[in-house]
Structure formats: structure tokens, C-alpha cells
Fold this protein.
Amino acid sequence: MKADKRIEKEINAISATLPQGVTLIAVSKYHPAEAVMEAYEAGQRDFGESKAQDLVKKHELLPKDINWHFIGHLQSNKIKYIAPFIHLIHSIDSYKLLQEVEKHAAKCGRVINCLLQIHIAEEESKFGFTTEELRSMLKEGEWQSLQHVKIRGVMCMASNTDDEEQIDKEFATVESLFKEIKEKHFSNDKDFDIISAGMSDDYPIAIKHGSTHVRVGSRIFNN
Ligand SMILES: *Cc1c(COP(=O)(O)O)cnc(C)c1O
């Protein structure tokens, strides 16, 4: 453990500001297993990675009671590596991908928790369903036959901007979309209960709009 305990201090400082029921996911992408271990020793158990290979390596090296979250763009050919142990996939961005996860989850005899990623930011480069794609996919209804994936909620990334009003507007849109979907398609499902929103620079705004899972990387792991 590093003498200055900087990671531990940062985790404690952030945790102290989170309302009850909000989960802190420490995003450890690009950081070595030793950094994850330092956070683990501070009591952190939920970690996020955006590359399947890195996730698998860290899963092998690190304690088995860690909840691993996949937060990056997921390629179909990588699902098999993470399917045996992944805790939550945040980045389902097409129905086809959901079907692929279903296949691999079935092979492992698991039900995998998934979030539907919503494309809300202005950047073209970001992934996810548009609002209309999401509505029509859910209305289509085929997803209801999938036995090995469990849709737990939605995930989003706000625009990369200093304009807090813009960010606020985007998180508000996601919150109302979550409520709309819940009412229309998951009204009897108490497990449709996750909004994954907010990163190092914008998580307090996301919490204002109902985020239940914040994904914080650089504030914890960078100097
Ligand atoms: C990297 C990443 C984060 C963490 O971002 P920070 O700004 O470092 O906190 C959160 N979510 C996703 C999807 C990411 O790729």
C-alpha cells in the first residue's frame, strides 16, 4: 500500500458525499492491479473496466469478492471471456448484443445483469441507443423471451463539456426516460432499479437526477 493512502482518502471523501443507496464504482481502467488492491483494502468492492482483456486479467489476479462492472463498448466476440463472472454489463447498445450476451450467459448457466446504454451526449463518437431506438426495441417485446439476461436499468455518459446546464439537461432527459420505461415495461419489476450516470467531473449532477451508480475513475486513481 502506498504510504500516502491517497486512493483510500479519495474513496472515503467521495463515499461521504453519496446519498444512501448510491453505489460508487471505482473505474480502474488503465491502472494496475496494485492500485485496485489499494482501493480494495480501503473497503471498495465495485470496480469498472472498459476492456474485456484487462477485466479478465484483473479478475484472475484479484480477490474474488470484487463486483466487476463492464462499462466500455462491448464487442460480441469478447463476451465469452467475461460471461462467467461479470456482475453488471452497463453498455448494451443494441438488441443484437443483448441476444449475444443471452447466448453466453446460458452457456455459463447464469443470468447476467445488463443496462441499456442511452446515447444522450452531443458527441457522435459515443455509443448507445437513441431514445427512439430504445422505445421501439422495448415495444417490440422480443427481449422478454430472453431467460439469461436481466435488464436492470439504463446507463449514459453526458457530453464532455464544462457547460453544466447542458449536462444537467442530459441527465434530466435520462431520468425521465428511465421513469417512462419503468412505467411502460417494468412496472411490476422491482429489479428495474438502476441508473448508471455520472463520472469524476459530473457525478454530483447525476445524483440530483436519480443516479444510483456513479462511475468514478480519474478522481480516485490519478494524481
Ligand atoms: C473512463 C470512464 C469513466 C470514468 O471517467 P472519469 O472521468 O475518469 O471518472 C466512467 N464511465 C465510462 C463509461 C468510462 O469509460
In short: DSSP finds nine helices and eight strands in the chain. The domain at 3-221 is CATH 3.20.20.10 (TIM Barrel). The two ends are 16 Å apart (CA to CA).
